[in-house]
Every structure is written in structure tokens, then in C-alpha cells.
Design goal:
- It is built from eight helices and 21 strands.
- The chain is an alpha/beta fold.
- The strands form four sheets. Strands 4, 5, 6, 14, 15, 16, 17, 18 and 19 form a nine-stranded mixed β-sheet that branches.
- The radius of gyration is 21 Å and the shape is globular.
Length: 370
């Protein structure tokens, strides 16, 4: 390791999702002493686990170019670092609905603009694999993989150990406060002192953050309590379906045989609120809310893929997510680091594929004075 005496310090990272893990690795490799706090019993087991595990290549965001470009950059970084954990072995169709917010012509121009390969296909091809085409204006086949999360988790645990990141599992952070030039992070077991703190959890502000004069808040954000269904279907050849641009559906293979994930924006987002602080938690959901959400998701599934039949349902993936506030009209999903106070950073992580870029930005912020 090179001489990093001018920049080495103690760092707390709160949240061992994909953003927290990769930030911890990047900073530890730069010479920082890093402790990674996670309330769960393992890593990558909350919001990072409870989504469709897609590695975006920009196609999903024709209404927000910077999000699309950040996803493309992130995808390329992920291919270089962790490409062996991505599953490309399925046909993935992006379908422009007849009442989409984005027309086929605009989507075609967008594909050209982001310089990603997509092949327009005949609507008959959709019918052959079981997708309804009567509400489809155009269809495109793309290569957009999903992450093998189980294998990726094993890899990241190994890297964290090799990088000497101290992983503190089952540690709920109760408070973070500024004391002099240091930050004090408190759990039920200990109070520890750090030079820098990164809050990399969608449950941020489940604990107070303060300095000597006031409580520190994130900017206003939109919070979603989200359910993704996991189902086994009569699908001998796996395929992915993403209907854009609006309130439709996404269906993707999970990696297990004949198993798919199903997400539909309005039915899947069981509770939605805009706030500076976390307005609710997963435990707040009622069985009635979950059942109503499931029924609506399955109804939408039956409409868009009448050629598929669900044999059984696995336990759903349920998580709290955050997105930028007031982004419904633009579809903005940029990930960023937010400076909350000197030495304190909030991580707005919206897409798995953005995590490497954000981890490198964290390293640049702490080492820029070197």
C-alpha cells in the first residue's frame, strides 16, 4: 500500500447494501479504517435484495437522460469488476405500450442517442413467447442482465474480509452525533468515534443525526414500501419483459429454474410518502395491504403475459426504497452522494448498477485534498 498518511482516517458506513459494501471496500483499499454497520444478520439482504436485480443499460429511462447515462456507466463498471455474477442467458423485451408516455419514434431516437444495441422485433414474436401484443406499439430485444445475488454476496463477504473492513452485523445504529471534530456512532453495544460517516441505508433517519446546534436532515425524498412477487411459471425458456413508459409491469428471471420476479409500479408501491424522514417501515404493512397488492400485481401479470401460468408463489420481496422527491414527471433516478455536514454524507442509491460509481466518488471526496 502506498503512503496515505495524509488522508487515512476512521470511517463509519451505515447500511450493508450494495452501496454501503462497495463504499466500504473502496475506502478500505485507499487506506481508511472502515467499520460497516448492518442491522440485519447478513449483507445485501434488504433493499439490495428486494428488487428485480436488473443491471440497467439505460433503456428504462427515455425521459431522463442523465439517469440512463449513469446506468450505462455503472453497467460497464460492473462488467469490468463483477461480470461473472451477471446472468445474460435470456431474451429481454422492452415493449412500448400504445398509451406510453414515450412514443416508439422517441424511444428509437433515444436508443440511438445512448448508443446501446437494441433490435426491433415483430409483434408476432411476442405472442409466440406468451406476451400480449394488442396494447403494444413496438417491441425491442435487448441484452440487459440480472445479478446472481447469492453468488455476489459470497464474493463481497470475501472481499470485505480481505480488505479488513470490520463488518458489524446485527448492529442497529441508534444515533450519530458530532462531538468536536469527530462523529460518534452509537449502537446498543457501543459508542464509536469516526472522522467520517456515510449513511447508506434506505432506512435513513430511523436514528437521529445531530451536531451541537441542530438535527441534520436529508433533503426531501419520496419513500416507497414496495412488494415484488416471486413466482414459478410454465416457462421453459426464460425471458424478461419491461413495458414502458408508465405504470405497467416488469418481469425478469431470478436465476432459479422457472422462477421470475414481478413488479408493477402502482400495485407494488403499497405505501408512498414524500418526507425528509422515514415515514414508515416494513413492519407497518398489514396482511390486508400485502394481499391487495398481490392481487393487483397478479391481475396485471395475467393481462400482459396470458401465455404464462403461475404454478406457485415464493415469499415476496418487500423493502423500503427511496427516490428523489417530485420525480414522477421526469422519471429521475440519479444516484448521488449528499453532503449533509462536514464529514457526514448521505447516499442516495437508486439503482444497483450505480454503486461502483458512487463508491469511487466517495473515495475521491475523502482523498481530494491529498
Amino acid at each position: 500500500m502506498s503512503d496515505l498518511s495524509k488522508v487515512v482516517g476512521k470511517v463509519a458506513v451505515v447500511g450493508a447494501g450494495i452501496f454501503g459494501c462497495l463504499i466500504s471496500l473502496e475506502l478500505s483499499r485507499k487506506g481508511f479504517s472502515v467499520k460497516l454497520f448492518e442491522e440485519d444478520k447478513t449483507i445485501l439482504n434488504r433493499t439490495s435484495r428486494n428488487n428485480c436485480l436488473r443491471m440497467h443499460r439505460g433503456f428504462h429511462y427515455p425521459r431522463h437522460l442523465s439517469t440512463a447515462l449513469q446506468s450505462i456507466r455503472g453497467y460497464n463498471l460492473f462488467i469490468d469488476s463483477y461480470g461473472e455474477f451477471l446472468n445474460h442467458n435470456f431474451d429481454h423485451y422492452y415493449v412500448v405500450a400504445t398509451d406510453s408516455k414515450t412514443s416508439s419514434e422517441v424511444f428509437r431516437d433515444f436508443i440511438s442517442r445512448i448508443e446501446q444495441k437494441a433490435t426491433q422485433v415483430d409483434l408476432i414474436q411476442l405472442e409466440r413467447v406468451g406476451i400480449r401484443s394488442t396494447q403494444v406499439a413496438s417491441a425491442w430485444q435487448v441484452s440487459e442482465p440480472v445479478l446472481d445475488l447469492q453468488a455476489f454476496r459470497v464474493q463481497i463477504l470475501q472481499e470485505l474480509a480481505e480488505a479488513q473492513v470490520e463488518l458489524l452485523l446485527g448492529r442497529e445504529v441508534l444515533e450519530s452525533k458530532k462531538s468536536g471534530e469527530k462523529w460518534i456512532v452509537s449502537t446498543r453495544r457501543e459508542e464509536l468515534e469516526f472522522d467520517y460517516v456515510f449513511i447508506a441505508t434506505h432506512s435513513s433517519h430511523s436514528f437521529p443525526i445531530s451536531n451541537s446546534s441542530h438535527v441534520i436532515d436529508f433533503p426531501e425524498q419520496e419513500f416507497h414500501l414496495t412488494q415484488v412477487l416471486v413466482a414459478h411459471v410454465n416457462q421453459p425458456d426464460p425471458f424478461g419483459l419491461t413495458v414502458i413508459d408508465g405504470d405497467y409491469i416488469t418481469i425478469l428471471p431470478t436465476g432459479s429454474s422457472n422462477e421470475i420476479s414481478i413488479y408493477a409500479p402502482t400495485p407494488s408501491r403499497i405505501r408512498v410518502a414524500t418526507s425528509e424522514r422515514r415515514p414508515f417501515k416494513v413492519a407497518d404493512l398489514t396482511q390486508l395491504e400485502l394481499a391487495d397488492s398481490q392481487s393487483q400485481i397478479l391481475e396485471r401479470f395475467s393481462f400482459w403475459v396470458p401465455g404464462l401460468r403461475i404454478f406457485s408463489l415464493e415469499p415476496p420481496w418487500i423493502a423500503l426504497r427511496r427516490v428523489p422527491a417530485h420525480s414522477k414527471t421526469t422519471d429521475r433516478r440519479d444516484s448521488e452522494l449528499i453532503g449533509l455536514a462536514p464529514g457526514l454524507f448521505g447516499v442516495m442509491g437508486t439503482k444497483l448498477d450505480h454503486a461502483i460509481e458512487i463508491s469511487r466518488l466517495a473515495s475521491e471526496l475523502l482523498t481530494s485534498s491529498d
